[in-house]
Design a protein that fits this description.
5 helices, 3 strands
Length: 111
């Protein structure tokens, strides 16, 4: 099995970080505040930070995907999902839509 460093050295390697945002990860975010268990996030974050630091050290691209919802993107399927609770998740300009623990450090795509 390859080590993390060996995998990061692959010429086609990239790290993709998806939806690591306050509403999904923080206990006071939309999901945590409504009773979803987000306790595993705290244990995962040091590993994610280590992975991101290693990727940057080896100049591996890091791509951040961030969910943003607003009236223009809300479909009926989205707003009625989870008994209507989904409509409050990651609203444009909200604290909940921001990256959790500054995981992106203000970057959209980095290398």
């Amino acid at each position: 099995m390859k080590t993390l460093n060996e995998l990061l050295l692959e010429k086609n390697a990239a790290v993709i970080v998806v939806d690591v945002q306050n509403d999904y990860c923080h206990p006071d975010g939309s999901l945590g505040a409504k009773g979803s268990d987000v306790s595993g996030v705290a244990a995962m974050m040091p590993f994610l930070h280590h992975l991101l630091a290693s990727a940057r050290e080896y100049n591996v691209p890091v791509i951040y995907i961030q969910t943003i919802h607003e009236d223009a993107t809300d479909s009926e399927a989205w707003t009625t999902r989870s008994n209507g609770r989904s409509s409050a998740v990651c609203r444009k300009g909200s604290w909940g839509a921001e990256f959790y623990e500054s995981v992106s450090q203000g970057r959209g795509i980095s290398s």
